[in-house]
Specification:
19% strand; 5-stranded parallel sheet; 10 helices; Rossmann fold; globular; alpha/beta
Amino acid sequence: MSDHQHRAGSLFVVSAPSGAGKTSLVRALLADAPLIQLSVSYTTRPPRAGEVHGRDYMFVDAADFERRRAAGEFLEWAEVHGNLYATSRTWIEDHVAAGVDIVLEIDWQGAAQVQRLYPDAIGVFIVPPSIDVLRERLAQRGQDSTEVIERRVAAAEAELKQAHRFQYVIINQEFASALGDLRTIVEAARLRYSKQQARHPALFGGLGIAQRKKV
């Protein structure tokens, strides 16, 4: 069993095509779930309207991003739609070790990197009910031009082919139902033996491998 499996917290890697509703679902989850936090990613893309540095992203320029990457500060990084994104390695490890569940909102490439380093990370892929619905949602956001929307739709079609990389897939057709699915995944992950053992070492710590096989 790896050291990662003895940590009390769980690492949730949540990915989705742009416009599938990932951010809204994660924010709703964080609003009422105890001991779970969002990892704030670094990015070189400019802030969108209403986004706040340190809350939504750590907004940095390309030079600062490259300096941090070279110093080994990032757990994973990826280029998405021409912008760079990354996750802080130290922040993740400290919080998971302390028993805090962490949610990463990253693209599938970053998710693959994280799951190689953390084999017990829980991968969740959120998808729209159809490509047509996705196109409508992107248009309703009013943030992108028609050209950009079509580019994102094309990217989404390619990203949907990566769904097999994740343990769980949530079809976000109805928000409340999708949120319930996400909550169920979180609660189930907390009941895994490795996490219960880490949280209650006095109860499970004395069981050896041979003893566990008999239980």
